[in-house]
Design a protein that fits this description.
This protein has 18 helices and no strands. The protein is mainly α and about 325 residues long. The longest helix is centred in the middle third of the chain and has 21 residues. The radius of gyration is 23 Å and the shape is globular.
Length: about 325
Amino acid sequence: MPRRLNAALLCLLLAATPALASPEKADLLLRQGDPGAAQVIEALAKARPGDPDVGVLQVRLLLLKREAARALELAEQRAEATPGHAASHYWLGMAYGARIGQVGTFAKATMAPKIRAAFERAVELDPSLHDARFALMEYYLGAPAIVGGSEAKAKAQAQELMRRDPPRGRFAQARLAMHEGNDAQARKLVLDAYAARPDEPMFRMAAGFAHQQAEEWDQAFAVFEAWTADEPWAASGWYQFGRTAVLSGQRTAEGVAAFERFLALNPQPGTPEPKHGWYRMGQLHAQAGDKAAARRAFEQALKLDPKFAEPRDELAKL
């Protein structure tokens, strides 16, 4: 075969071989709940065996698939193999947290300190890993003293977050205020955090909730509109826009469209289940007087979960 033809063939082969995606691309796919994340992460694992960042992606994928037992097993292996990798310990703590709700009382008692230890180790290894520090604060705040819970330690972590990352620190202080029943102070701190960093999903969600609770409908709609404009794949943003329409009785048609968009997206970490989207959509159709569409939506919710009481009750009212 002539040398020129060999070169042309090589170029064609190279063009047909897809470039290996980066961990950053895999991270985005995971946050979007994209089914393609599994293939990308599998390819990364083959190309970069032993890479702790890729190991974290594998754990996150299993958690997204709600395979908590497998996620924990892998997370334990990764943390043991890379004891100096902070993110591995953080996701070990997250895997323990996902698994603890699936085990018995005795297992919970033995597993809880492991959650604390994983988050503490992550923060020790990387004090700038603010997700881990926030998770540790939440652990101290919510756990009984017998397994290491401590309001004083929670406050110390919140203060450290304030020093290192003021918007995150204000959000942490808001959690403390909520824990103490000071709703007015919590609301102020949440809105301060959102104003300082309006592109943070956690702040967006909390600010939207604050406006919903105060029946500040225009402000609530604005939060979720901005979110979905910036991140059209953000299922929580679409769901909460629709929920605001339900609660307010306003912008009904846009609310229905938001739920349709929500239901068309892939399931994502922390988002409501599709049955809730159908139920809320049914409420909007009922508010608009379209009983046939409401019935279809409520029936779809029940198809997904026959024990779902709310849509069954709504059907009885039609």
